[in-house]
């Protein structure tokens, strides 16, 4: 039976250290890290994520601004807000929650955010820096996954690491971070042939495909570490990941639950990036 990786607990420990550092910096400089979060429209999941981000910010003692914009917002209005926040000295991090309503071009929005305030690490300047191993900000979810793997005491070096999913937010940067930790990395996706053959090789399996209960116990190597990035809502309203927890926990050595695994870590890494952005201005 697998040991559960408690994302809430790992997250809590990191946030306590962040809170302490924020207090110390405030004593010394009289300034706080500031994060601006923008949400456009009414996507229910995004609303929950954004509320959690704001709450976390306040808990660690950051300054926070939340912009709720209507679905009808134009690209000009959104870019004007970002431009203003880029120039605002109280704001060190800017996050525009994705997905945006269809009429808004996400790429334009990502490009508009000052790379020094891009705490999501989505701007090509930052994704490029991650690619060459010289990052300013680490992408939040993949960085959180790395911390969770680290919490098991496992050395990634030389391990077979398989990532299912190739999104810009998770799959691709996740593969880069595992590679930088000297893992042997394979990226799988919807066109991968013989998926089970590949996943069965994995000492570390990171699943970010967005399909409820997609990975089952028979696809997992005995003793593997299984990290479930998925967050899906079942028809009965319950949250579930991309991994079928019940069958997977019988095979894995460590596994993350949903909720309470990767989710809290993503926000913690966002706080970390905001703190980093703030410190660069001191
Ligand atoms: N939507 C889903 N995950 C994320 C994230 O990490 N950042 C932003 N901005 N939007 C998201």
The CA-CA distance between the termini, in Å, is: 48 Å
Q: Pick out the low-confidence regions.
A: none
Query: Which architecture of the largest domain would the CATH scheme give at its second level?
Result: 3-Layer(aba) Sandwich
State the strand order across the main sheet: 1-11-8-7-5-6
- Proportion in β-strands: 15-25%
Describe this structure in words.
The protein is an alpha/beta fold and 282 residues long. It has helices at 7-29, 44-59, 75-86, 106-112, 124-131, 140-151, 171-180, 195-199, 245-248, 262-279, and strands at 3-4, 34-40, 63-69, 93-96, 160-164, 184-188, 204-207, 225-228, 232-233, 239-240, 254-255. It has a 6-stranded parallel sheet. A 3-stranded parallel sheet has the order 3-2-4, with helices on both faces. It has a two-stranded antiparallel ribbon with strand order 9-10. α2 links the parallel β2 and β3. The protein starts with a strand and ends with a helix. The protein binds guanine. Guanine binds at residues 95-98, 120, 140-141, 169, 266. Residues 95-98, 120, 140-141, 169, 266 line the site of guanine (GUN).
